[in-house]
Amino acid sequence: MNNPSMKKYNSFSFLLLIFLTLFYVSVFAQNTQDLALADEYYEQGEYEKAIQYYEKIAKKNPSASYIYANYLDAMLRLEQLKDAEKYIERCLKDRPLDPKINIDYAKLFLQKREDKKANRHFEEYINSIKSNSHLARVTARVLAHEGFYEYAEKMYLQAQKNTQENYDMDLGLLYLAMGKPKKMVEQFLILLKTQPNDAPYVQHLLQSRLSEDEEWDMVEPMLYEAIQKYPNNEVFSEMLVWYFLQRKNFMMAFTQAKALDRRNKSEGVKIMEIGMLAYNNEEWKSAMTIFGHLTENYKGRFIYGQAKHFLMESKEEYIKHQFPIDKEQIKSLVNDYQESLTEIGWNPSTAKSARNMALLQAFYLNQKDIAINTLNKITEIRGVPHQLLSQVKLDLGDIYVLKNEPWEATLLYSQVEKTEKETPLGYSAKLKNAKLSYFNGDFKLAKAHLDILKLATSREIANDAMDLSILIQDNTGLDSSETAMKEYAAIDLLIFQQQYEDALLAYNKILSHFENHSLTDEIYWKEAIILQKMGRFEEAAEKLKTVLKINPTDIFGDDANFLLGKIYEENLNNTQKAEEYYKKQLVDYAGSMYVVEARKRIRKLRGEVIN
């Protein structure tokens, strides 16, 4: 049975629903339009017009968060401080704990020069949320972002006391932002006491933020203090090892790592890592000491063979960098290699050591046939990686060049070119073939090889190819016979064969026969390098000065100037002259790759600690 009154009620309800829907759609549409206009005027800097539309929205929704930032900023820009204060207070009634609104309220007092009110509000607000870990962290970050660092610090410290949350990392980052490196380090060390796994991140932050020596210097005593305070917490000892490595003080890092290694029985892994860092930084003496320790104390362990190999390599590099090279030391080193091979055996793990020994025999002891036998023996070892076998072929080719048998050499180089296509070894083989053509005076064929290599993926090989190609291009075609260039190329072969006296005589011949030739500065530079290797340092210095006199801005200018500084510092013991040339490097060759090293050497000569 139909009820008329019920029908009327349902019809009324339906009409009311439609009316309300249309009303709210209309209001929403109006709000959207007002907001768009307000934002547009705000972006255009027409703040009075923007405020009119923001006010319309605020009357309908007093604490609308989507207008808060722009509306408040517009009022502040027009210095409508009373209206701004009323607006913030309305928003605070709805959101009393909102960090941004509370901080803006305090900032408003500061703008009105009511500092006491501002400070009181900061204090009251911090006190009201100190037990809320999430709000405390958000507030501290907003405070820091706004530049209120001291209140951010206070927020973290209050929250640290009143919650279970850890804010050590936050405090450390805050001190970093505040430019307080000492407090930053202190806080990070407090953090590491309970959270040692954060050490890598802390190290990253210290490495990227500590720039001055004074800042780095303060870290060491703080770490020692932490070690004494918490002797059973290894993270601080590990941090000290890391610290010394940043300072490139490999021996101190080694001393600390030894103690850790004994305690943890970690088989010398960290010590090996430090030895490799010393080796890669060309700190040969430190590397020798570290690898020597490993070979003495880890015999029979997995790390022994690797340590033995790098001990030999460190000795080799040290000897090779002492001019003139001592043949007796080379002989002693070859004996060490032979003893090592006898002890460990000829196997894939010792193949590199055998290769090193062969190169010493060939290039320093004139034992070319013995070296060839050594290299051939490597090729008979089963399991040697094919890349190493290809490298051995290149070495054999080099020795045949020493023996003046270029056809044997090019045969070996070409084999590697074929088997190692599009690899650094393949490119190296092609470069060696190009140099053979160059030594022989066949510049057209050499340049054809070199122009291909200029596109090699190996930057070092591409650069070498580019340099030699430019040398040929710049110095051929100057006379129909290309006599000077052919003589110069033949001297490069003498240098490769380490026939230094013959090379110097031949250079003098070119200089006397081809006065003011474009090769002149190249020749003086090469003479300086040869004389340095022969230990004739005074003569080397004079040749370098000639390079600088002829053309100080040419390609060899910065190289010659820096090498002069090194020779005066390391070989002639004239620190005053050395510093003079290093300073010149900073002024006359400011874009040089040696500038950073020159600056370090100046500071070292003055007795400063170098990071």
TrEMBL record:
Q: Which SMART domains match?
A: TPR (SM00028)
Q: Record's superkingdom?
A: Bacteria
Which keywords describe this protein according to UniProt? Answer: Repeat, Signal, TPR repeat
Query: Which PROSITE patterns does this chain map to?
Result: TPR
Q: Which Pfam families match?
A: TPR_16
Q: Does the keyword Cell cycle apply?
A: no
Respond yes or no to whether keyword Repeat is given for this record: yes
List the signal peptide residues: 1-29
Q: Where are the TPR repeats?
A: 31-64, 521-554
The cross-references to PANTHER family, in alphabetical order and at most eight, read: CELLULOSE SYNTHASE OPERON PROTEIN C, TPR REPEAT-CONTAINING PROTEIN MJ0263
Its protein name is Tetratricopeptide repeat protein
Native source species: Bernardetia litoralis (strain ATCC 23117 / DSM 6794 / NBRC 15988 / NCIMB 1366 / Fx l1 / Sio-4)
